[in-house]
Design goal:
10 helices, globular, single chain, about 300 residues, 11 strands, ABC transporter substrate-binding protein, 3-stranded parallel β-sheet
Length: about 300
Amino acid sequence: MRLLLAAVAATVLVAGCGADPQTENAAVSGVNTSVDQQRVTTTKNEAAAALLPAKIRERGTLIVGAGFGSGNPPLGFLADDNKTPIGIEVDIAHLVAGALGLTPEIQVTSWENLFVGLDSAKYDAGFSNITVTEKRKQKYDFATYRKDDIAFEAKKGGDWKVASGKDIAGKTIAVGSGTNQEKILVDWNEANVKAGLPAATIKYFNNQPDTYLALSSGRIDAFLGPNPSIAYHVKTGGQTETIGKFSGAGPSLQGLIAATTKKDSGLAPAYQAALNAVIADGSYAKVLERWNVSTEAVDRSELNPPGLPLTS
């Protein structure tokens, strides 16, 4: 297996497109973007598997919604064949399925349709950098597996830094719709306006290439997104930098990423047990190291912990 170096990354691999120059950069940097991922594996944990609802255990598969759309490296994107899902979230889903004695079926979808699929029980789980929030807890159950940090990315060489919400006043910032990053950005903006500061302009783009085109052309001042994705792009592209990093659950709580399932489906305890099993056997740490996100490791999985507040 080709080792993933600390300074690695591709931007976005869009299904159906030809070779992406940044995909080639990924290969040069040592990122394995091939179909043959040689993933970290684990063994079945009987205690975790016993917690599965009978119909899932008998079916033998774990149907996973991966809401990264056209791609969000290193969290989830497509391999060189433009159809095989790879990335941190995909590897974690494979580990959990392995610990439960199931075969994973990774179904790539959009962020919005991921939650539609969870609501209809089309997906047994969502592994897609989903942050625990109090609002989401009204509809979903969570088993945590990674810290959630978010970051601002801007063109390199500027003197603007984001140390608090006040620093976004008057700026134009892109963010993903329906994300916890969006909620934090909107809350900050509303607080600034109430305090008499200039409003920020919030922009939305359909995909990362459009976002980064807007950033490079100066149509936006910054992009607010998941820290792993920002760090990945900064390292590879060489044209941008991180200008601020925060917890994805707001100023008073460490954000957490979790395996997500429809509320009261009975699946979350099995996911928690499987995650704690792979944390204990070391396979979890190897996956995070593989994708250079070891700093986001957790010591144990938690069920439905406190999340981003309804108001912040």
